[in-house]
Amino acid sequence: MARRHGCRLLLCLTSFILFLSSCAANEAAVMSKLATSISPTPSTWKTDNLCDWEGIRCDESLRVTDINLASRSLTGTLPPDLNNLSQLRTLALQRNSLSGDLPTLANLSFLEQVLLDGNNFTSIPPGFFLGLTNLQSFNISDNVHLSPWTLPEDLTKCNYLQTFEASNACLTGSIPDIFDRFSNLHNLCLSYNNLTGTLPTTFGGSEILNLWLNNQNQGLSGTLDVLSSMTHLNQVWLQGNSFTGVIPDLSKCINIFDLQLKHNLLTGLVPRSVVSLPKLANITLQNNKLQGPLPVFQSGVKVELGLDTNSFCLVTAGNCNPQVAALLEVAEALGYPMSMAVSWQGNNACADWSFITCESYGKNVTTINFAKQKFSGTISPSFVNLTSLRSLLLNDNNLEGSIPEILTSLPDLELLDVSNNNLGGSIPKFPQKVRFLHENNMNLGLNSPNYDIPPPESLVSSGMVIVIVISVLLFIGIVSYSYICYYKCYGVPTKLQSQASRDHNKTPISEYGNLGISIQVLDQVTDHFSDNNVLGRGGFGVVYKGELHDGTMIAIKRMKIDAVGTKGMKEFQAELEVLTKVRHKHLVSFLGYCISGNERLLVYEYMSQGTLSRHLFEWREAKIPPLSWKQRVSIALDVGRGVEYLHSLAQQSFIHRDLKPANILLNDRMRAKVADFGLVKIVFDGKYSVDTRWAGTFGYMPPEYAGTGRVTAKVDVYAFGVVLMELVTGRKAIDETMSDESCHLATWFRRVHVLSKENIVSCIDQVVNIADEAILESIFKVAELAVHCTAFEPSQRPDMSYVVNVLGPLVEQWEPVQQEEEQANHRHHTSLPHFLQVDEDTYAMLSNVVQPNSF
């Protein structure tokens, strides 16, 4: 029997070795073709071991993972079977003179960055992006010999795409409306192409930081309205197009620092929201037809207004003439038509303005003739400010809305013609001296007493309709009242409401508000707390996943029965007390709770990517890519913001006391949220520290807490510093497999940091790409911050607001042209964890999370 098993094992090993040999031979053939198809071939490419070739990196099984031949003056073509390099993660061939057709890269599922900019390629094959499920950065800018191509639908399968650059790359057609499918796209650079059409509506609400669409040959068109909802924008380059309409309200786009809108067809006033953008450093507006007062920006902002190419009423700061201001408000109601913007220049409405006639001595507007101009919009009540107005002709347009009643007070009005429009509402009663023409407005005056009394049949019919409407309203009122009463009695959160409302077992009302959920609902959505739905187990219970009828996933923490009333009950009460008082996009969101007999349950939103510890320490076992540096520093900033909120921005101050990667959760966009509030302490006003029982996790507790039991916010700062060290090194806070001198990460890291930067380099997690100097410099800054956070004396540690201020620029520092290396290393993972593995002393609130769209 033993011999038989030994033979089987030998056979398996032989087959595996043969498979590896076959793969290696296949990759060697591809690399040999590459070596002969480019010139000059690097001198080290003559050895038999391709993993020793300059610019080539391999994994442990000697499979090619990276090809980096940037800026080597290479000519030639690429072999057509390049996609046989199945483990390829990076293809960096930028700034050479390579030519010919690009080979397909389809189905290279590990490929993360493709940098082909600055070459002479001639075509992109169909299906080029198929199967590139881990692609994060793509750049094919400055390839002017490409055949015309359009943005392909295949791109939507690249769910983790962060940077897409194709400027000066012969793109044609419209920008497809697909951007609601990219939850991680930060940089879209499509300048100097042949794109046409409007901005896609799915730009709204996107994560785009840098939008470069400038200088299209034929010009993008339409309005810029979608910018209002692109709240993450930093840099906006839209110059050199044919955009029309007004500059939209950008009051929610507070991070914009560079706004390029010159050389378009924009009209209207420069909105106050643009002038007051807090981070604005550079704006260009020349060569448009902007109107109104001259905008005055904050000192330090570089501004190009184009006084000779726009239509501002003054060339210095100040208010427009009252008649000019009134006419601009009239134009606003009509959408600031270009015909007005071209003519209505300067600060004198009587100086040959189109559609305007003034009295003989040229001071006051007496006639406005907008007849047959195809204007759309509404009639502005600001006409009333033109007190000398005698004739107002608005006929034969596409005007909607009502006729402002205030126009009846114009003292000199003699003629008002609004016929042949789409106006509605009541008919104002003008003085008898006014000739009022309003025919052919189908909805005008339907409710007006000026209309003839309808025949009796109509009255009967109308009366029946009224009775029916009143009955329906009464029914709705009764149902609504019953619903409110039910809600007050049963108190369920919004997402669970539809299911809980079918359950007739009342949930107790407590001081924590209407967040009670019945045990029957939770039993149903977890399939009777099935073991198949277990996400994790901890010292005080089990975490289950549940699925609502609409597909929404939730996480439910069920306390152990024997723990209730003791330590577990205290944690249950602590979490309730904290979670009902805090809400922040980087803190786990609380949905509700259940108290039923001995049952104690807490309900949270589900986090698809699990814990940070899974991605830092268990990624090989989970068969997921490791975190890139950009992901790590972004996660650090998210956590820092969450803890900063707890310490100083919430209504009360809270100390977490158990900050560690196992209590940091990641959503499907790899955004981090702090979880597990069972050990949180509330700091009451005026108190600097709190006496408390010892709690927390070894490796993350500062020396003063372990020694005295007195806890301050600096306890969390220390733990955060240890988390930073783990992000830099990929090591756990306590690693008992290491020597005594090295097993405690904070002590070891601080000692190494004191020695030199070279020692820091040797400590960096080997999976992090440090070839980019910007990334390496960022790592040094984070390492230095980690050391400050773990200072022995609490007074020497910074507060979390300082931490956030240090990390913020590191996340934002990579501009689109500098992101080639780093953005592409942004690794993402499968949509859901198989099971979250939880330490016994962590008590398993590890998948209780906030949905990304809940803020």
What can you see in these coordinates?
There is one protein chain. Among the domains are: 126 residues, Leucine-rich repeat, LRR (right-handed beta-alpha superhelix) (Alpha-Beta Horseshoe); 123 residues, Leucine-rich repeat, LRR (right-handed beta-alpha superhelix); 113 residues, Phosphorylase Kinase, domain 1 (2-Layer Sandwich), CATH 3.30.200; 220 residues, Transferase(Phosphotransferase), domain 1 (Orthogonal Bundle). A hairpin with a 6-residue loop joins strand 23 and strand 24. Helix content is 27%, strand content 17%. It contains 18 helices and 43 strands. With 855 residues, it is an alpha/beta fold. The strands form 11 sheets. A 12-stranded mixed beta sheet has the order 2-3-5-7-9-10-12-14-15-17-19-21. Strands 32, 33, 34, 35, 36 and 43 form a 6-stranded antiparallel beta sheet that branches. The radius of gyration is 34 Å and the shape is globular.
Short summary:
With 855 residues, this protein is of the alpha/beta class.
Principal-axis shape: globular
How are strands sequenced across the largest beta sheet? 2-3-5-7-9-10-12-14-15-17-19-21
List low-confidence stretches: 9-21, 448-463, 481-495, 497-513, 685-694, 815-855
**CATH class label of the domain at 612-831:** Mainly Alpha
- The fraction of residues in strands falls at 15-25%
Tell me what the CATH architecture of the domain at 612-831 is.
Orthogonal Bundle
**Category from helices, strands and their pairing:** alpha/beta
Question: Total strand count, please?
Answer: 43
Major sheet, described briefly? 12 strands, mixed
User: What is the share of helical residues?
Assistant: 25-40%
CATH fold node name of the domain at 612-831? Transferase(Phosphotransferase), domain 1
CATH superfamily of the domain at 612-831: Transferase(Phosphotransferase) domain 1
Rg from alpha-carbon coordinates: 34 Å
How far the N terminus sits from the C terminus, by CA atoms, comes to 62 Å
Mean pLDDT: 82
Helix count equals 18
